[in-house]
Design goal:
Chain lengths: 140, 421
C-alpha cells in the first residue's frame, strides 16, 4: 500500500520515478489523475493511490510555436514547435502531457482519437535530472 | 438550474466611462483610470458630486507582475481624491473587474452603501511579449504549466476538441476574426481600427513600394490562411485568433435603484448576474464548453427571470476566437455545435439577429485584462442607451444586453444581464 501523501508534490515525484499515479475514492470508486484530496462525486476525502496503466487516446492538442522560456532553452521555437495535449486515459480520467512522436510542424497530421502510450521524458543529468510526463502514439 | 436569486434591493448603472485602449508609452495605470473616471463623471446626465461616492472596488489581475506594483485599491482612491473611503481590489484573472462590479452590486443590495464606484485597470505594454505571456500564464492551472501549455495553447487544444466533435475548421474561426475587425473601426476607443481587408491592402501596398513579391490573396480568408500574414502561435490559434497586449481602464457608477432618478432619466438596470468557477483543463467535464459559464449563465437567467432568447446582443470574452464560439453556445444563444454555423451565416454581425461583440471584442477593442469586464458592460450600456454612434445596432428597440467575462482558462466565468426599462 502506497503511503505517500496525496498531493501534487507526490504526483510529480512519482513521475520522476516513471510512474503515472492517480487516486481512487474509497467510498464511490471514482478515479482521478492527478490525485485529489476530495472526491468531486461524493465529496468525501477518503482517497487511496491508484496506479494508471499509461494508455489512452488524444482528446485535444496544440502545437506551440511561441512557448515559455524553459521550452525555448530546450531548443523549441517558431521553427521547431512542440506538441502538448490532453490525454484521456483508458481508466477514464484525463491528464495533460507533452505529446511526443508526432510532427508538431505539420499539425494537420495529428488526429484527436490517436491511441497513445505513456513515455517519461528525461533531460539533464544526475541531481539536475527533470522528468516530464509525455505520451506518444502507441506502437503496434 | 439554481432557484431564483433576488437582490435585497435593485441596482442601477447611472454613469460609465472607459479610457482608450491601446499600448501607451506615456500613460500609466493612474492616467488611464483618471481618463475613464472623467468620462464616467461627464456621462451622469444630471451630474454627480464625487463626494457622494461611498466606496469603490477596483479589478486588477496582475499589475504586481506587469509593473511591479500591487495594492491598487488605495492607489485609485488616492488618485481620485476619494481616500479615506473603502477601496478594495478584486482579482479573478481576466474577469477581475466583473468581480468588482459584482461586489459593488452586492454592497448596494445589502444596504451597506447607496453609491459606489466599480472599475478595473491593467497596464501590460511596459513588458515584453515574452513577459506578458509569462504573466498571463500565472492564471492557468499549475498542471498546464508543467505540461508546457501556454495560454493560447489551452485555447488551441479546446479548438481541436471542438473541430473534432462538430466538424468545424479554422475557416469557421476566421469568420469571427473578420467580424470583430469589421466592428472595431466603428469604435473610437478600440486598439485596432482596421478591417482585415484594410490590413491586406496595407501589406500589398508595402510590398509594391519595396519592390517585393506582391501577395495575391483573393479573399480575407486566403490572407488569414497565409502564414506570412497570419503566423501560427499555438496551432490552431494563429496571430489573428489572439487578442493583443493592452493598457486601459474602465469604471461605472452604481446606485440603489430607487435613487437612479436623481442622476439620470436613462438608467440601465442590473437585471441578473452570475459567477462560476471551473476546474483545470484536464478535469473539465467537457473540452468544448466551460462549466463555469453554464453555472454563471444559469444564475444570471434565474435572477433576471429572462431566457437566452431574451438577450438581444452580447459582449463575450473572445480572448481567442474559439472562446467566442464556445461562449455563444454556453450562454444558450446557439445550440452546442451550432454556433459556428450561425456565425458563418452572419447571425453575430452588427446587423445580424444576435450581434456579438459590437465593440470589436477583446480581439480588436483590446484586452487590458483587469479593465475588460467593466469595459464589456460599458459597451452594453452604450448600446442600451443608443449612444454607440456608428456601431449602434441598427433598427432594433434594444432592451436587454449581456456581458460574459472569463478569467484564466475558464477558472472564473461571469455573465451579467443589463436592461433598459
Amino acid at each position: 500500500m502506497e503511503e505517500r501523501p496525496l498531493s501534487d508534490i507526490s504526483y510529480y515525484r512519482f513521475i520522476d520515478e516513471e510512474k503515472l499515479m492517480g487516486s481512487r475514492c474509497k467510498k464511490c470508486g471514482q478515479l482521478y489523475a492527478p490525485p485529489r484530496h476530495f472526491c468531486f462525486e461524493c465529496h468525501r476525502s477518503e482517497m487511496e493511490w491508484h496506479k494508471m496503466k499509461g494508455e489512452g487516446e488524444l482528446a485535444a492538442f496544440t502545437c506551440i510555436f511561441i512557448g515559455p522560456s524553459f521550452m525555448g532553452e530546450q531548443g523549441y521555437n517558431r521553427k521547431n514547435p512542440y506538441c502538448t495535449g490532453v490525454v484521456k486515459l483508458e481508466e477514464g480520467p484525463r491528464v495533460v502531457a507533452r505529446i511526443e512522436g508526432v510532427d508538431a510542424g505539420n499539425p494537420d497530421t495529428i488526429k484527436v482519437g490517436t491511441p497513445l502510450e505513456v513515455e517519461f521524458l528525461r533531460r539533464g543529468e544526475g541531481e539536475e535530472t527533470v522528468t516530464s510526463l509525455a505520451f506518444r502514439p502507441r506502437s503496434g | 438550474m439554481p432557484e431564483k436569486r433576488e437582490l435585497g434591493r435593485g441596482v442601477a448603472i447611472v454613469g460609465a466611462g472607459m479610457s482608450k485602449f491601446g499600448m501607451f508609452e506615456d500613460k500609466d495605470s493612474k492616467d488611464l483610470f483618471a481618463e475613464a473616471f472623467k468620462e464616467m463623471l461627464s456621462s451622469v446626465d444630471k451630474g454627480i458630486d464625487p463626494e457622494r461616492i461611498e466606496a469603490m472596488w477596483i479589478g486588477n489581475f496582475s499589475n504586481d507582475f506587469f509593473v511591479h506594483q500591487a495594492h491598487w485599491g488605495p492607489i485609485i482612491s488616492d488618485l481620485l481624491g476619494l481616500a479615506p473611503r473603502a477601496a478594495t481590489r478584486t482579482e479573478g484573472a481576466c474577469a477581475a473587474s466583473t468581480l468588482a462590479f459584482r461586489d459593488g452590486v452586492m454592497a448596494i443590495a445589502s444596504g451597506l452603501y447607496d453609491v459606489v464606484l466599480v472599475g478595473g485597470v491593467e497596464e501590460m505594454s511596459k513588458c515584453t511579449t515574452e513577459e506578458v505571456t509569462e504573466g498571463l500564464a500565472l492564471a492557468t492551472s499549475p498542471y498546464e504549466g508543467a505540461a508546457a501549455f501556454t495560454f493560447p495553447g489551452v485555447f488551441g487544444a479546446l479548438a481541436t476538441a471542438y473541430f473534432d466533435k462538430y466538424g468545424a475548421t479554422r475557416e469557421d474561426l476566421m469568420n469571427i476574426t473578420i467580424k470583430s475587425h469589421n466592428n472595431a473601426p466603428l469604435n473610437p476607443k478600440a486598439q485596432f481600427n482596421k478591417t482585415i481587408a484594410d490590413l491586406m491592402q496595407a501589406k500589398i501596398k508595402k510590398a509594391e513600394e519595396r519592390g517585393k513579391p506582391v501577395p495575391s490573396w483573393g479573399s480575407e480568408k486566403e490572407a488569414l490562411g497565409d502564414p506570412r500574414f497570419n503566423p501560427p502561435v499555438a496551432w490552431p490559434m494563429f496571430l489573428y485568433d489572439c487578442c493583443p497586449i493592452s493598457d486601459g481602464a474602465s469604471c461605472m457608477l452604481l446606485v440603489a435603484e430607487d435613487m437612479a432618478g436623481e442622476f439620470t432619466d436613462k438608467p440601465i438596470y442590473m437585471a441578473g448576474m452570475g459567477q462560476g468557477s471551473g476546474r483545470a483543463l484536464h478535469a473539465s467535464p467537457s473540452l468544448t464548453s466551460f462549466e463555469a459559464n453554464k453555472h454563471a449563465a444559469a444564475e444570471a437567467y434565474a435572477m433576471s427571470g429572462l431566457e437566452p432568447k431574451d438577450i438581444q446582443f452580447s459582449e463575450v470574452h473572445d480572448c481567442f476566437s474559439i472562446a467566442e464560439l464556445i461562449h455563444i453556445e454556453d450562454l444558450g444563444f446557439f445550440k452546442p455545435g451550432e454556433g459556428y454555423k450561425a456565425v458563418a451565416e452572419g447571425a453575430t454581425k452588427l446587423d445580424g439577429p444576435m450581434p456579438i461583440n459590437t465593440s470589436g471584442g477583446l480581439k480588436c477593442k483590446g484586452h487590458p485584462v483587469g479593465a475588460t469586464g467593466v469595459a464589456q458592460m460599458f459597451e452594453v450600456w452604450k448600446q442600451l442607451r443608443e449612444e454607440a454612434g456608428e456601431r449602434q445596432i441598427p433598427g432594433r428597440d434594444l432592451r436587454v444586453g449581456g456581458a460574459q467575462n472569463l478569467g484564466g482558462t475558464g477558472g472564473t466565468c461571469t455573465f451579467t444581464i443589463l436592461e433598459r426599462r
